[in-house]
Amino acid sequence: MTRYGMAIDLHRCVGCQACAAACKIANNNPKDVVYNVVYTKTDYDWDTFGTAVVKGAVANDNAGGTFPDCTLLYLPVQCQHCENPACEEACPTGATSKDPDTGIVSVDSELCIGCESCIKACPYDEVRTLIKSPEYYLDVEVGEFDAPPHNAGTVEKCTFCKNLIDRGEVPACMQLCLARARFWGDLDDPESDVSQAIEGREYVHLCEGAGTNPNVYYLL
Amino acid sequence: MAEQTKRGFSRRSFIKGAAALTATGALVGCSPQGENLAETGGEAAVEIPETKIYSGACRGQCAGGCYLNVHVRDGQVVRTTAGHFDDGPEFDRICPKGLTQPARVYSTERLQYPMRRVGKRGSGEFERISWDEAITEITDKWKQYTEEFGPQSIAVFLGSGNTATLSGAAPEGSIMARLMNVMGASRVLPDRDIATPMANMYVFGYANAYQHRMSDIYNTDHVVLWGGETCVSDKQRTHFYLDVQEQGKEFIVIDIAYRTMGSKADWFIPVHPATDGALALGIIHEIFEQGWEKTDFLRDHTEAPFLVKDDGMFLRMSDLGVKPTTTTDEQGNEVEVDPQVIWDESTNGPVPYSEATKPALTGVPKVNGIAVRTEMDMIREAAEPWTLEHTTEVTGVSAEDIQHLAHLYTQEGKVMTDMKYGLNHYNNGMYSSKCINSLLLISGQIGQHGAGLCIGESNFGEGNVAAALALPSTSGELPQGVAGKLNWTHFLDIVKTGKKMGEDYPIKSFYAMATNVVSNQTQQNDTLEALEAIEFIVIQDMTMNDTALYADILLPACHWFENEDLRVRYYSNPYLLWNEKAVEPLYESKPDVEIYRMLADALGYGDFFDFTNEEYLEVLLSTPYGIENGVTLDKIREKNYLRCQPDPEVAFEGGIFGTPTTRAQFYREDPQPDYMMGQELDIEKEKFALYWEPAREADLSNPIRKKFPFSVCCEHMRTRTHTQWYDVDYLKEYEREPICRINPEDAADYGIEEGDVVRLYNDRGSVTLRATINPGQQRTVLHCPRSFLMREHIDGDLARTTFNDYNQACRNQSYFDCAVAIEKL
């Protein structure tokens, strides 16, 4: 059995936004659909994420504190592909489910009725989008041929790029990181990149108290 | 449930198509999923389109120049990913700019066909014309100007926005550069990024600090990043610093604001803007106080023992009655040899510098009755005023931090210093950089594994430009060469007055390609005034940027992926990259190189270009390095990339410098300014590497700051290279609009809150934008990204606030040296 997960080294992450841009293009995401947000963060409260231009902030990259004793870090947040996904339980149609073979939590757009129950249940704010009327930046379709459908009236989120994984590739956010802050693989395989990255490192999970047991590890 | 999950994905699909890597035939991406076919019981196969991957590169002249895989499906660019080098993962990064290239290809801002201006300049009113009309109109005018006013009346600005060899302009030997030489046109110099390289040239003899192999950083004990936000402006190099930290070594950042790189540092040292040279002098002072200077290095590898007479000239053997000899230099010219004198302590007498066994650093008596001082005496004298107190007062750096830095540079092992262009962008940039270079010499932290200037890796350079430009025409005629090189700021004056240094110099036409001078040169009002005054403007570009709006004729260049070319020069990416043609040029756009050739033909210069593009590239590749290492197009195309190997791997290895004496220089008896436009010149300032003066406006003590209390660092953006990528909406999810980062206490003083609209202004102009409160700013220092177009600002333009005057000896655009007042609107 495979349990896909990700580790993000918060010391290595320099907020370059490569993972966010890679995600957006590979999935041919419409304007208002963002699976992966790199927040600017000025504290170490792991129940909150910080600010981001894509979420309405005036600017990214502003520090906290009092000059020169400042704090500045970046927190990339996407679906945490939890062991106990709150969204799955909340979904009335069975659209949201966790694949027992891979650990990937997904939303089936054919079953999704856009009721937003998953959005309300999920402790990780805004990792999902209810697509209203998808508008695109470009007239041409970009990304992978089997990018998600972006149907109006459905909810979408990070798929761990299952389409890419299925053909032996890695999630879009993985291969392109400027500082190499992300690690990906099977958490059940001790030899995987992600397991090796976590080994011996101090880490946190986001919203630990929610009891979702996420599969994204943040290395400190 | 599992069955339902599968429906949303491709598991059932028999992946019939396969992505082919065109260069090598290797299969990547979609592999046939035979097992899935079995698993799903042989359901009907879904045919999916083939994806081809071509070799590409970002060619916008950030420092990265990254290698890209260009994914093409159904004849369209659908995705870009990082190209990988099989000889190591050091430089196979990509950033949001590289990743959003499809949006540049399919940008609505792209110029689609040649156009002629019909409205007012800047209004954006154009009419569509044919290529024939465009080329005929341009070349008819140019022929007429050449006849009436001489070819120098046509001014050519080679932009840096396309670093391809054939189509681009940054390499001095591009096809357009050749045409400019054939025409005898004037060349307008951009005058950017000059000060720090000039300081390196001054002190170390040539700017090959780039020689230092980046991975040598793993041999150091400390890295000092001095004035740079590497993760924004030099992305390929960022990971080296994080790697070094993971090795348990110390990473130190000296910066005017607490930014991302500072947040990663083990030790962050805040400094007042543009006072870094003073900080270096303070550290040098402290090193002398403690007796920590590296005497052996100074004695054996620098000109510190050289003797300077009261008249400021070196003591030479001719002063001691030894007749100069002659020798032949590399160019075959006969040159006089009159060596400088060193006082040899082992014989207690004067000897030519190359013969001294124990050069004296101080205490040299009169020689033949001539009073002399060593350069070392002068260095100590220059450092004398820079006590801890004085240095702290000027720089804002605490005495403890200065002492700590002095200790670090001399007592704690090896130090690698990254000083790139952070200090370059001030009017005093050359002086600051020279002082820091002097610190490296006094502490002996250069020329060894793990110690030196770490600013990027040596690469192929510009190629054999001399040979490319000297190729004769089919009738044996040689290009006449450019009529003159006009410094940007001088050019503006020449346009206005029609005179250059008192002589008539009419400028009738301005041609620029792959550049946006309106946004990217300082003091925008002057730029616009010049563009208004020029009779005939031709702009060749990919998009309708600010400068394109001022064109009389617009020539649409195609995107980088729409023609093949060679990416040669790059500063932080030591690979030659072959760029394949991935898709057809869109609309009526053409490869730049084809446009150059059309212009050449119509001007009657076709016989100067009677070679294939490949033949021309082979000439450019025929440098001594290229010949020695068998660098040919075929070799590059084997993998589409070829690494350039620095040899040796360490810049100035063993303390052997590029100066005539092979010793590093602190003093020049006859320094020359790098431009001349009739400026007043106090040459004494330029003679000594430890001379320092404050910046023009960024300095806190400047009286102008009473009227204009803030300085603005017009910084680079994460998501743009200069103004390129302005048309990519994806990137506005990260940097949406022009902003002004301001310290919270400063903001409170003006009643400014997050997102408020503010106006920055001075006597040159103003800009209206949104304020954002950033505790990472020190008081009275603003950071504003400088890569927005005029139309993106609420009003005005950031480039209207900066000045375009040059340092007296250094032609340099000072993007960070700008004082403004602020008001809340």
SSE string of chain A: EHEEEEHEEHEEHHEHEE
> Uncertain regions of chain B: pLDDT < 50 for 5+ in a row?
1-42
Strand content of chain B: 15-25%
What's the pLDDT, averaged over the residues of chain B? Answer: 92
CATH class of chain A: Alpha Beta
Rg result of chain A:
17 Å
Q: Specify the biggest β-sheet of chain A.
A: 4 strands, mixed
Strands of the widest sheet of chain A, in order across it, are 10-1-12-11
How large is the share of residues in beta strands of chain A? 15-25%
- CATH fold label of chain A: Alpha-Beta Plaits
**Superfamily (CATH H level) name of the domain at 214-453 in chain B:** Dimethylsulfoxide Reductase, domain 2
SS content category of chain A: alpha+beta
Sequence of strands across the biggest β-sheet of chain B:
7-6-26-25-24-8-9-21
Largest protein-protein interface: A-B, 70 and 77 residues
Q: How far apart are the termini of chain A?
A: 28 Å
- The CATH topology of the domain at 214-453 in chain B turns out to be Dimethylsulfoxide Reductase, domain 2
Sheet bearing the most strands of chain B, described? 8 strands, mixed
Structural class of chain B: alpha/beta
Shape by Cα distribution of chain A = globular
Quick tags:
heterodimer, A: 220 residues, alpha+beta, Alpha-Beta Plaits, four-stranded mixed beta sheet, two-stranded antiparallel ribbon, 20% strand, globular, B: 825 residues, alpha/beta, Phosphorylase Kinase, domain 1, Dimethylsulfoxide Reductase, domain 2, Barwin-like endoglucanases, eight-stranded mixed beta sheet, seven-stranded mixed beta sheet, 26 helices, 36 strands, 26% helix, disordered N terminus
